[in-house]
From TrEMBL, chains A, B:
InterPro entries: Ald_DH/histidinol_DH (IPR016161), Ald_DH_C (IPR016163), Ald_DH_N (IPR016162), Aldehyde_DH_dom (IPR015590), PaaN_2 (IPR011975), Proline_metab_enzyme (IPR050485). Pfam families: Aldedh (PF00171). This is Phenylacetic acid degradation protein paaN. GO terms for molecular function: L-glutamate gamma-semialdehyde dehydrogenase activity. Keywords: NAD, Oxidoreductase. GO terms for biological process: L-proline catabolic process to L-glutamate. SUPFAM superfamilies: ALDH-like (SSF53720). The keyword Transmembrane does not apply. GO terms for cellular component: cytoplasmic side of plasma membrane. The keyword Oxidoreductase applies. NCBIfam families: PaaN_2. Residues 94-511 form the Aldehyde dehydrogenase domain. It comes from the Bacteria.
Length: 568, 568
């Protein structure tokens, strides 16, 4: 096992980061490596301008940083910003056969480098990505439709923290196996002595299939978990959100080469919309691991056909994120928190709440008892108020990402009628002051009866939420647990002043297999999870079969090969 | 989370065992909790006699210890000892619907007991099993056909050590997640403080499908990994090897009840041969985890259809266990070691060597250079000599387990002709001095050319091995790596005096994804692995998708549910 000088240098350079991040993951205390503030004091006086310039330079041009990938000679690219403009970036089309061969050839040296060196190289990649966070923010904003600050945070430092989390989670699991041991079995005479060496080996190629809404945040855990455990990675971005992952892959390849490894360890498989490249790649025999974020259709196919083909498949799809309202001693905080959660990125987060269960008899609050109708009106009012100022609202709402979302938010009365519900709040259109072509909608609220479960037991991705009339809180919790077990959820929250109800909610969440946030009235929102402390998803309900980042997410990405012999 | 007094007592009682076993698993140094010697000094003066009496008492009778399982009112049972006699044990037939409902109802209290209490209860179960090791030895012997001492060791203490290994591997993974943390995010003002609680929750019912040859050894890792992570377990034994697992399940249920938990956490699903119960159980929606040992037919079905149905499937099937002979400075030790490995339990171990690659030009040894033919003859001679004394030989060979194995070993010349090979050593029949109805065969050796790969690229389970003529050692290693990647292997070994060849063999084993034993000439055999130190299988080739016991075997059997709230 030879180790080259640059990788040793990276090991020294990043030892402290790895130790701190490992310690944080063990305690799950607050830890963040990458500052979430885009402030010039943190990222440098020229960082914002440099980032914007780099983004503009990439537009309407060939993405030459990946020109050295094995290519077909053709280019692909059809990105259109949800804010309006076409990006015009042309990516070299990957020659899949050649790419797979190159990735396979790259395995032995990366495998033999060992877990620690791989982790250090991964950290270096993440550090370099961090340095380009402003550029990344523009790339994420103009592919996902996220507002700028969110694009910076979720697309940049938060995604980078999740990447680092995956790296150390993988490192810890690999370090559980010693590199060697002297095994001495006592006998009546001399003990039997054996030297045993344990080598971590990768599974094969890791395929990471990105999504439109969180191109980096949802792709980094899979990319870095596979890479850190010795697997080469092919990144297949969503055709409408290529640029953030193209930048990522280009950085990774440069760092790998500088560290003495093969650039082919990370490759980008861009495609035009509708090429179906994900399925082709998923079924390649060399692909052993698949990480997927996206709709339940292809996700379900992967969970079935990919798994049947012997691949390890990690998915995040969709679900019914639920809020159970029982009572509150801070109505204002509750409504403000909920309004933000509904509004942030127009409900286009896989973690955004959708279904709010409210007892038919209403709830008690610090502002007196409220009927069901009053609760619904209060929530609607909070959403309206939160988004009253168009200029401020667009910085939270962002833009709707695709026609599917726009379709649902365009004629809410028709949607409500079709679902058998009543419109409490229609989706108000907003004209974006800077990007007039962006389709921006303030979230709508539809009221339905719990008995009408077809209305609310499918994901309604985007700026539409449901307030659901239940018999009482016990019924709310029961419906919550049942619908999440059946249909999945990424998040859940409960508001109650009763410890007994909170305990029942915890029990329901445990049965449903979803994480629970209790009485969020301040600056923490149910849609947001903190790397190193909160798991994203649980893997325990149909919304996702994996969580960022637990041992199950990393432990099967590698295998251990023992060699043993007698020693004197 | 309430904990009952008995479970606390068990926690105190077994804390030291858990700590010692956990430490051993981390270092992979020698560790064994359960003595492998059946000596009266270890297990008590009357243990052997008591065990035999208990076994005889079970015969030709209803297995009443499981009468309290939810049953159909019918009994099943068709066990016939490979040594001849019918066992005549009648097992209550499980009512699957009622059993699944009972198991599901048992989950919350077992889940809420926590990882430490579950581990302690599991240790208590294993300790009680250990106390009945002599009885178990007879049960294993007369279902598997193993010789007595092997039945005692592999069916008793070695299986128990593997069980304990699974328990602590599961415990370590569960303990990686703290039960709670105070999370403090710094802000410009007061930090944001949240209390986060993490609860380990099980996946659902664990189904463990046992095999005929190692009913306990191969079932215990799955049983205890699932149970220790909070999942109720349904044990579906092989219809011809029920008794060892019936005893196991009965002990587990008693311990669980004494510890304050539900007996339904462990249930036995016995069936008559051909009932097809495994498939029925595997497709139950309540079954989330499947552990399987057995033939590749049903194993392949589970890997495909079970995985496609969203189950976690852990399999051990079959493969081409390989020996690469290059050179040796201890010919006598090499031959003796190989002869034992071929003979032990008549080659009916999933780890028994089958394919021996020898260069066409022969090998160099401390007794001079040997031609290919001489090597083959020497191996054959060693097998003959090792089994020369019938009375001693049967104590190693045991009995052939089924007609399939007997068919292959009955007319070796016809088999060789069909495969295009030459008989180097025919399978000599031995009449067992105590059990005249047992079919006992000294292993046969067939010589084939490497080009004739159809002859040796399928598993030939039982007392038939192949010596395969290759171009040279480089070709041996290449064929080894390729055939194992394609067809799988549980074990591999190499003999060489050259460090360079050994290094190449390690590289080939890493590519093949199989553990390697080097130059075994003493009391360690390639078919044997030591719990806490050697992995059984790797999960990196088609023979098995899992290993006993690594993190990947346990980490996905549970999930973590977080609840979080603000604190002052």
């Amino acid at each position: 096992m030879t180790q080259t000088a640059p990788t040793h240098l990276l090991l020294d350079a990043h030892r402290e980061v790895l130790e701190a991040a490992t310690a944080a993951l063990a305690t799950r205390e607050y830890y963040s490596r990458y500052p979430e503030s885009p402030s010039p004091r943190v990222y440098g006086e020229t960082a914002a301008e440099d980032g914007q310039r780099a983004f503009e330079k990439a537009r309407n041009a060939d993405f030459s940083a990946l020109a050295d990938q094995p290519g077909t000679g053709e280019t692909v690219g059809s990105e259109v910003s949800p804010y309006g403009p076409e990006l015009g970036v042309r990516y070299p089309q990957l020659d899949v056969d050649a790419a797979v061969a190159a990735a396979t050839d790259a395995i032995p040296a990366w495998r033999d480098a060992g877990a620690e060196v791989r982790a250090a190289v991964c950290v270096e990649i993440i550090e370099r990505i961090n340095a380009r966070s402003h550029e990344m923010a523009h790339a994420v904003m103009h592919t996902s439709g996220q507002p700028f600050v969110m694009s910076f945070q979720a697309g940049g430092p938060h995604a980078q923290d999740r990447a680092l989390e995956a790296v150390v989670a993988a490192l810890v699991e690999q370090q559980r196996v010693p590199s060697s041991v002297l095994w001495e079995k006592p006998t009546k005479g001399d003990p039997i002595r054996m030297q045993k060496d344990y080598q971590v080996v990768p599974r094969g190629i890791g395929l990471v299939i990105g999504c439109n809404t969180f191109p980096t945040w949802n792709a980094y855990p899979g990319i870095f978990a596979s890479l850190a455990t010795g697997n080469p990675v092919v990144v297949k971005p969503h055709p409408r959100a290529v640029l953030p992952l193209a930048i990522t892959v280009a950085i990774a390849r440069d760092v790998l080469e500088e560290a003495g490894f093969d650039r082919a360890l990370v490759q980008l498989a861009a495609e035009d919309d509708g090429d179906g490249l994900a399925k082709t790649l998923a079924l390649r025999p060399e692909v052993a691991i698949i990480d997927y974020t996206g709709g339940p259709g292809f996700g379900g196919w992967l969970e079935k056909e990919g798994a049947a083909a012997g691949k390890l498949v990690y998915t995040e799809k969709a679900g019914l994120n639920t809020v159970v309202l029982d009572s509150t001693d801070d109505l204002k905080g509750t409504l403000g928190n909920l309004a933000f959660s509904f509004s942030l990125y127009s409900g286009q987060m896989c973690t955004a709440p959708q279904n709010v269960y409210v007892p038919a008899a209403g709830i008690s609050t610090d502002q007196g008892d409220l009927t069901f109708e009053e609760v619904a009106e209060k929530i609607a009012g909070a959403i309206e108020k939160f988004n009253a100022d168009d200029t401020r609202a667009v910085e939270i709402l962002g833009a709707t990402v695709n026609d599917d979302v726009r379709g649902r938010a365009t004629d809410v009365p028709a949607l409500a009628e079709r679902l058998g519900g009543q419109v409490v709040l229609d989706a108000r259109p907003i004209t974006h002051p800077t990007f007039p072509d962006a389709v921006v909608r303030v979230p709508a609220l539809i009221s339905v009866d719990a008995a009408n479960d077809t209305a609310y037991t499918q994901e309604c991705f985007g700026p539409v939420a449901f307030v659901i009339r239940t018999e009482d809180t016990a019924a709310s919790l029961e419906t919550f647990a049942r619908t999440v077990r059946e249909h999945g959820a990424m998040t859940a929250s409960v508001y109650s002043t009763s410890e007994e109800v909170l305990q029942q909610a915890r029990e329901a969440a445990a049965r449903a297999g979803v994480a629970l946030s209790e009485n969020l009235t301040g600056p923490i929102f149910v849609n947001q999870t903190a790397a190193f402390s909160d798991f994203h998803g649980t893997g325990a309900n149909p919304a996702a079969n994996a969580a960022y980042t637990d041992a199950a997410f990393v432990a099967n990405r590698f295998r251990v090969i023992t060699s043993r012999r007698h020693v004197a």
